[in-house]
Design brief:
Length: 127
Amino acid sequence: MSHIAQDWEPVVLRKNPGGARPGSSAGAAGAKKGGTSKQTAAGVDIRKLEAEDDDAPMRLETVGRDLRLALAQARQAKGLSQKDLASKLMIPPKTIQDYEAGKAIPNNALIAKMERALGCKLPRQAK
């Protein structure tokens, strides 16, 4: 049996030069890998298919401008912040932010709750 000696050489850690990953070739360091293809298996561009497909709407309808403005004006007339109104309705403040920014998908039941809390009529979405 041989005796194994301790290695007292200092270890120096450095970042890889140029952001290259260990084990990858230097030429492929800047190339993107996967997830960028917008083509189906048949080689047809998905964006082109979506643009041509008039039958099925791809996007859900969001809150209209009239509801956004009416909600913000009614809330400010009551002297409530978005957070205060949200806590009064027992919903997350992000929901009120989304409604006022026009990003939310309208929910007539929630709009009715807002009307009761604010004491005014708000424009509803058609069913």
